[in-house]
Design a protein that fits this description.
binds flavin-adenine dinucleotide, Uridine Diphospho-n-acetylenolpyruvylglucosamine Reductase, domain 1, 299 residues, 25% strand, Uridine Diphospho-n-acetylenolpyruvylglucosamine Reductase, domain 3, 8 helices, 3 domains
Length: 299
């Protein structure tokens, strides 16, 4: 491992860490160590990392803000590629933009709104990166990434490839981005609108979010997807699970589809609570809730 880390340090300006605790990089503040943790500074560095990892046959996965991830307590066997440094933003006069996969969605929303560009203002407050938001087709209110996405540059072991939106096939909290590709950058197309109106809509969203989701403790947003025609939080609430806890993990008193880390929660606590919620809701309604959060790593 140390030889590979040394080789990566030779080609990267960004950090290369061995055994970095992933709980430091997830919004739940939960997660064991990554065998390797690399943070490329540019698309070229990203391609070089992917090429080298393919040569040595090491598994890897991309990490954005870790706002939709539950990393098990045993950590991740392989390389975590942290995208946080790829934050480029190039706006063009025709209402399109090329933005880096590691750009925080909130920064993008602010820049778009300032330019009078509409299409993602409802996403204000989602603590995601552009790459994570494309892969999950993050959305809120009437909007989702699918509404503005023209295409994406996907990095892989063989190089960079442009995929148009039709091929990326964004659906409810899902897309066709393959597991062996990383969204290095996205091309977005906005519509034009009044900047002040957009700004007031952002403020409205942020305040609604604070009211509904200000749970005050580390979390990963909605844990379960909404089943067709149903709201997950309501099903959980009506099953009497609000406030239920296992170890350091607790179903939020404020938002029943959030699980919070009350302090010292392990992934095992969260997983056991997830299982309990699924069984209780299924027993009462016959509906099997499907997790929205992604679970990775070793028990
Ligand atoms: C308080 C809170 C509120 C939230 N509200 C919402 C909401 O309103 N709507 C909503 O849709 N979601 C919401 N979320 C969930 C989360 O923000 C989204 O799912 C988001 O898309 C995850 O982005 P990320 O960058 O954090 O991805 P991560 O959690 O880091 O990763 C998630 C998955 O995406 C992959 N990935 C990340 N970056 C890339 C990349 N560049 N290329 C390829 N794969 C990549 C990872 O490998 C992983 O499989 C919320 C979360 C929190 C904590």
């Amino acid at each position: 491992m140390n030889a590979l880390a040394a080789e990566l340090r030779g080609i990267l300006q960004g950090p290369v860490l061995v055994g970095e605790l992933l709980g430091r990089h997830t919004t739940w503040r939960i997660g064991g160590p990554a065998e390797l943790f690399v943070a490329p500074r540019s698309e070229q560095e990203l391609l070089a990392v992917l090429h080298l990892l393919a040569q040595v046959g090491m598994p890897w996965m991309a990490l954005g803000t870790g706002s939709n991830l539950l990393v098990r307590d045993g950590g991740y066997r392989g390389a975590i590629i942290h995208m946080g440094a790829l934050q480029t933003m190039e706006f063009r006069d025709d209402g399109t933009a090329r933005v880096g996969g590691g750009l925080p969605v909130m920064r993008l929303v602010r820049q778009a709104v300032r330019r009078g560009l509409a299409g993602i203002e409802d996403l204000a407050g989602i603590p995601a990166t552009v790459g994570g938001a494309v892969v999950m087709n993050a959305g809120a209110g009437e909007q989702a990434m699918a509404g503005v996405l023209q295409g994406a540059f996907l990095a892989g072991a063989e190089g960079m490839e442009y995929w148009p939106a039709a091929r990326l096939d964004l659906r409810y909290r899902a897309s066709a981005v393959p597991a062996d590709r990383i969204v290095a950058a996205a091309i977005l197309r906005f519509s034009f609108a009044d900047a002040e109106m957009l700004e007031s809509s952002v403020q409205h969203r942020l305040s609604a979010r604070r009211k509904a989701q200000g749970v005050g403790k580390p979390n990963a947003g909605s844990v379960f997807k909404n089943p067709p025609g149903q709201q997950a939080w309501r099903l959980i609430d009506e099953s009497g699970m609000r406030g239920r806890s296992v170890g350091g993990a607790q179903v939020s008193e404020k938002h029943a589809n959030f699980i919070v880390n009350r302090g010292g929660a392990r992934a095992a606590d969260v997983l056991s609570l997830i299982g309990e919620i699924q069984e209780t809701v299924r027993g009462r309604t016959g509906i099997m809730l499907e997790p929205e959060v992604q679970v990775i790593g070793e028990a």
